[in-house]
Amino acid sequence: MEEIASRKLKIAIISPPWFPVPPPGYGGIEMVVSLLTEGLCAKGHDVTLFASGDSITKARLSSVFEKAINKKMAKNVHLENVQSLYAYGMAREFDVLHDHDGYGSRLLGSLTSRLLKMPVVATLHGPADEYGKDFYASVSSDLLFVAISDFQRQSFGALNFLATIPNAIRIENYSFSPISDDYLLFVGRMSEEKGAHIAMAVAKKLGKKLIMIGKCSEDPEKAYFNEKVKPNLGKNINYLGEVDQATKLELYRNAKCTLFPIQWPEPFGLVMIESMACGTPVVAIKNGSVPEVVKDGVTGYIVDDEGGMVEAVKKIGDINRSDCRDLVIQQYNEELFIDRHERAYKSALSIFER
Q1: Which of 1, 54, 69, 108 has the lowest tally of Cβ within 10 angstroms?
Q2: How crowded is residue 352: how many other Cβ atoms within 10 Å of its Cβ?
Q3: Which parts of 45-148 fold into alpha helices (H)?
Q4: Phi, then psi, of 121 in degrees rounded to 5
Q5: Fold designation for 171-331
Q6: pTM for the whole thing?
Q7: What is the predicted pLDDT for the residue at 298?
C-alpha cells in the first residue's frame, strides 16, 4: 500500500452556504476555507469544495445553492444541512472530509464517520458555549476535531482533537506601511460581543478619529447599532458599513492602531493578524485567544478594560510596525497553515487504516 505520508489525497471541504468562497466582504470562515482549498490544490491534492455556486476556486466546485444565501441565514439556519447532506452523500468518493459548517452538518459527519468508517475532520470556528460543549461531546467519539487556538481547545475540554491549527492569511495580499495616519480603526460585526461601543468611547476620551467597518445586516446587529452606535456617530467617529477587501486593507495599512475591544471568549480573531500583517499594531482587551495572537508590548498591547485601552493608545508609537508584520509572517503564513492540515489529514487516515 502506498505510504500515507506521500499520498496525494482526495479531499472534500464543506463550507457554510451563507457567503461565497472567498467572501467579497464579511466572512471569516469563508476566507480561511478559500486559503485552505487553494493551498491544497497547489500542493497537488484532488479537492472538491462544497460551497455556494458563486464561489471562485481552482478546486472542483459542487453546489446546491446557485448563489450564497446569507439573506436567509437568520430564519433558515436549517438550510446549511441541505448542502451538508449533499456533500456527505458523496463521502465514498473521498479519502477524508473536512467540515467547516455548523451543528447539523457535524451530526451528519459523525453518522458518516460511524457508518462508513472513514475520517471526518471538523474545524471548530466558534466559542465553547454550553450548548456547543454538550453537542460536540455527544458526537466526539466519531469526529476528529481541529481547534483554531489553544484557548478554544481547552475551553471545549476532552473532545477527540486531532490538532490545533491557527487561522492564517496570504501575506502577499497585505501590503506593509512603516508609517500611518492618525486615526483609530475598528473592524467587526455590529454586536455587543465585538465591542464597537467601547471603541467609540476610547476614541472620544482620546479626541481621536475612529473609522469603523463591519457587518450590520441581521436584526440583532441592527438593534445594537441603533441603540449603541448610531447615537455616537459624528465628525470624528465614522461607520462605513461593509467594505470590499481592497478598502479594508487600505484602512488597516494607514491606521495608527486597530482597536479590538472583544467582549466574548474570542476563539481566534482574524482581525488581529490582518491588522498586524499591514504593520498596524493592535490594542486588545484580554479575552479568549487574544494573548496567543498579540505579543504584548511588541505587536500591540493587551489590556483589561476600556481605561486600559485609552492608556495603551497613548503609547502606541512605541510599537515597531515591522515587528507586527514579522510576527504574522513567522506564525500565520499560508505555507505553515497548509502543511499543518496535510499532517492532520494523514494522521486521520492513519487512525482509520490501522
Answers
A1: 1
A2: 15
A3: 79-88, 103-116, 130-139
A4: -100, 130
A5: Rossmann fold (3.40.50)
A6: 0.92
A7: 98
**Where is average pLDDT lowest: 15-29, 64-78, 91-105?**
64-78
Q: Give the 3-state secondary structure of residue 220.
A: helix
- pLDDT, one tens digit per residue, over 208-235 is 999 999 999 878 899 999 999 999 999 8
Whole-number percent of the chain with pLDDT over 70: 95
- Say whether pLDDT at 347 is over 60: yes
Rounded CA-CA distance 212/239 in Å is 5
Judged by DSSP in three states, 62 sits in strand
Joined together, the cell numbers standing for residue 257 give 492602531
Residue 1: the pLDDT is 39
How many residues does this entry show for the chain? 354
Tell me the one-letter amino acid at 147: A
**pLDDT tens figures, 109-154:** 777 888 888 899 999 998 888 888 888 888 888 889 999 999 999 9
Evaluate whether the domain defined by 4-168+333-352 bears CATH number 3.40.50.150: no
Give the pLDDT of residue 307: 97
The average confidence (pLDDT) of the chain is 91
Distance CA 336, CA 218 (A): 35
Q: Using an 8 Å Cβ cutoff, are 248 and 278 in contact?
A: no
Q: Where in the chain is the domain with CATH 3.40.50.2000?
A: 4-168+333-352, 171-331
Cβ of 109: how many Cβ atoms within 10 Å? 26
Q: Burial code of 274-297, b = ≥16 C-beta within 10 A, e = fewer?
A: bbbbbbbbbbbbebbbbebbbbee
Closest-CA residue to 174 (of 15, 325, 353, 349):
325
3-state secondary structure of 83: helix
